[in-house]
# Entry
Amino acid sequence: MTTILAIESSCDDTSAAVLREGVLLSNVTASQAVHKAYGGVVPELASRAHQQNIVPVVDQALKQAGVTKEELSAIAVTLGPGLMGSLLVGVSFAKGLATSLGIPLIEANHLQGHILAHFIQAPDERKDTPPYPFLCLLVSGGNSQIVRVDAYNKLEILGQTIDDAAGEAMDKCSKVMGFGYPGGPIIDKLARQGNPHAYSFSKPHIPNLDYSFSGLKTSFLYFLRDRVKEEPDFIEKHKEDLAASLERTIVDILMKKLDMAQKQTGIRHVALSGGVSANTALRQAFQERAAKRGWHIYIPRFAYTTDNAAMIAITGYFKYLDGDFCPIDKPAYSRTVLNS
Ligand code: KG4
# Structure
């Protein structure tokens, strides 16, 4: 019986999951509230919080799964990309535990994990998994990419952001408005009460399938600065419309390129992944576009959109079946292109 313990600590969530024969038995995540006061993740505080959380989180994941560490077949861990100090906590812990138990270590790429989240099966659910090939719009705090997926380990980036990620744009614009962190869920909530056509912000003109969000961030900043000069409580009075208009602009930019990628490749199975895929307007736009164009679509459960170890567990399981193990001296990496 194949039982995988997975560990994810690439940013500000410490997460551990247990998967047996491809079925998820537990997925425990400790998020770090400490960053809220700073309006973004503070790397050193993140590393410290991972050190506090890692042992109890792994312990709880094993207990919830009803699995002892002696029953584990392998340990999968996110080796990158992410914050180096954060990664080192999870990677060192996983290496130590795998060595002491005499079982293989499996490396998982964080972005591959987000995409393979579509294959997570919980015991109580039967869900459709995308057939290969499929397209995946991967949108998170650190990435915005359109990926062609031909197999679990054959991934090709068709387009990606040349500057900020979509989630980063939401977080930065939220900060400019004086809202909390992370900004994505706050903007999502406010936007539901606002008019998405109240204001217009600049959209990038990039010819291929790449994205750019830094111009939008700047145009949003200048727009607010001018309006606040005329009306000091402009943001407070119009926050719902501002959130809805900003969100609409980001969703339009994302959907336009996804549409282009779908037309260019002819692939009809299309998936969403990453933290921003929790966004209400993006999910709605995705569903509407699918209905119009006849796409088969795949949207992950909310629990698997943001960082979690369940996605690392399923990645680890596929690699385990292929005997694809990681040398114990392989170091963590902060940046990478997405391969396998
Ligand atoms: O995937 P994730 O947890 O971490 C990374 O790997 O980056 O994504 C975090 C990002 C943040 O930028 C956060 O603001 C955004 O996902 N996010 C959302 C929503 N929930 C999380 N953005 C828009 N709407 C949401 N509901």
